[in-house]
Amino acid sequence: MRTTRPSRRLTLLGAATAVGLSATVAALPGSAGATPDHNQSRPTIVLEHGAFADAGSWDGVVERLQRAGYPVVAAANPLRGPANDAAYLRSVVEHVDGPVVLVGHSYGGTVISQAATGLEDKVKALVYIAAFMPDKGESSLGLTNKFPGSTLGQVIDPVSYTLPDGSQGADVYIKPDKFRKQFAADVPAAQARLMATGQRPVAAAALEEKSTQAAWKTIPSWSLVTTQDKNIPLAAQRFMSKRAHAHTTEINASHAVTVSRPDAVARIVEKAARTVR
């Protein structure tokens, strides 16, 4: 693993209608109404998963962070679009008492970049794990297409749907038989099969929707770059990390680094958390 200081085409079919969601969160670790414990002197770590995964993809990271004494929330990501997903995540963050370190994997990076804007007094650090770090006016898809290296467009399986109100859209999956090679090449085969079966689809429109905020411009950022990533090109990750002046670590891992290398992920999150006073 190499640590540094800051200094092709993917075609998705269809478009999905973004769905507005509001969060109802009760007794989260570090939240109002939760039972006080010794962890309250430490920031709460809020984890946001990305596309083709769910909150369970953080399990190994959660275990390590809790063992180190941090309160942790692994939030559910609706995967409908940056604006709506960020509003959902923001409600979770606002429900937590005390300072927060906000962590995003993959598309979750796009979400935390938008959700944390205006919450600088609460969100003290951003951590991007093999993640998008868009500027205003950029989309996840646009950043992927900006550099060669992603093979995601070759293995996606779009599924069209019609809602009761007549609106239409499309969700995007990774074909199960292609999932491990594309997403989780360094995850044991049996585990990767389970991940493929339980993958959460992302709305096609979510990857095309442009960001309206970029919290990494005002909040200190850390980045874990995965050099064997087939979803987000390595060059794109390096470009975004450098532009954000993030404290950057590179690791020889697949896109599913939260599952294959939870120790490395937990370490970089702890580095960010230790800066919070």
TrEMBL record:
Protein's organism: Streptomyces plicatus
Molecular function terms from GO: hydrolase activity
Coiled-coil intervals: none
Ranges for domain AB hydrolase-1: 45-267
Taxonomic lineage of the native organism: Bacteria, Bacillati, Actinomycetota, Actinomycetes, Kitasatosporales
Keywords annotated in UniProt: Hydrolase, Signal
Protein name listed in UniProt: Alpha/beta fold hydrolase
Ligase found in the keyword field: no
Keyword presence, Signal: yes
Database matches in Gene3D superfamilies: alpha/beta hydrolase
InterPro entries: AB_hydrolase_1, AB_hydrolase_fold, Sec-Metab_Biosynth_Hydrolase, TAT_signal
Signal peptide (residue range): 1-34
PROSITE patterns, A to Z: TAT
